[in-house]
Amino acid sequence: MPIPGPESNFLWFRFVLGQPVVRELECKDVRSTLIFVTGGNVHTEVLSEQIDMSDDLQLIVTTSRLAQTTTRALARRKATEWGFPYVERSDRSMELTLQDAGAAFVFRNDGLVLSTTQTQLRFELGTAALRLLSIARGERDWLVNVGELVEGHRVFDATLGLGRDALVAARAVGPGGEVVGVESNLALFTLVSEGLASHDAGEESTAIRPVFGDSREVLSREADASFDVVVIDPMFALPGKSDGNFKALREFADPTRLDPEWIRQARRVAKRWVIAKARYEEPWFNSEGLQPAPGMKTARWWRASGGA
Ligand SMILES: C[S@@+](CC[C@H](N)C(=O)[O-])C[C@H]1O[C@@H](n2cnc3c(N)ncnc32)[C@H](O)[C@@H]1O
Fold this sequence. Notes:
By secondary structure, the chain is an alpha/beta fold. It is about 30% helix and about 25% strand. It folds into three domains: about 10-50, no CATH class; about 60-120, Rossmann fold; about 125-305, Rossmann fold (3-Layer(aba) Sandwich), CATH 3.40.50.150. Bound molecules: S-adenosylmethionine. S-adenosylmethionine binds near residues 182, 184, 188, 214 and 253.
């Protein structure tokens, strides 16, 4: 199989521990093909099924089989509120309940779960729980350090995900500050909005304002220097080490990659800092002002000054 040369639109990078060289094809329709070259053998793998559970996904609302009457009533109310069809679960399997739908918001007596036939995702604090505890003990958090966040700041989280960084930012900026979190996947946006609304973050935090949309578009409508810090934490092409909930998020997440225009918009909107996550340094990082974030143990976070 011929391997296209680096003059084409292939990005080159290496696995951190494994030795194979990987060439990754960047396509406009977000299909990604990995070509592994190991000992002269070429293997290809299409990643689109893994990373492109896009917004075309049809969503329904249902309950668990053992849901109480109050849980079923809540599910019906939320289905109307969110504008998704309500499907009576009765005693049916998830496969039969889903039919043509890609995922279901399943109301259980113990909370809400976003389910497919393969995976289940809940809103949970996860790593944010420990980070919030550290802050409460007066210890510094990496995001607070790198963003130099203080009370009253405005933070724009361009990749809300499960809301963990946003929750930490909300605690750091306090009730006088503001955190806007943008999520472009409708299923994730609905789950995280619902989770944040029912989570009591306490009086020391500001309420996070979730926004549904592509943050590149949302940023383009924001005024210059209207936020103190913009955070961009996009998905990596390949999964890293993470908790189970975060692996499930991958099933739904928007795979948009970091690119120069995203950083430019973020730098225009940020007064102080843009903080971005990337597994590998891209050739354009330096020209867009991105430098390794200070004080981080891993080189995955980058920072550029705002006001550009
Ligand atoms: C790695 S996760 C972010 C995790 C988040 N920092 C947290 O602490 O929970 C990336 C999230 O950003 C979302 N996303 C990716 N591209 C986006 C875009 N252009 N606009 C808005 N959200 C985006 C994905 O759907 C996914 O939920």
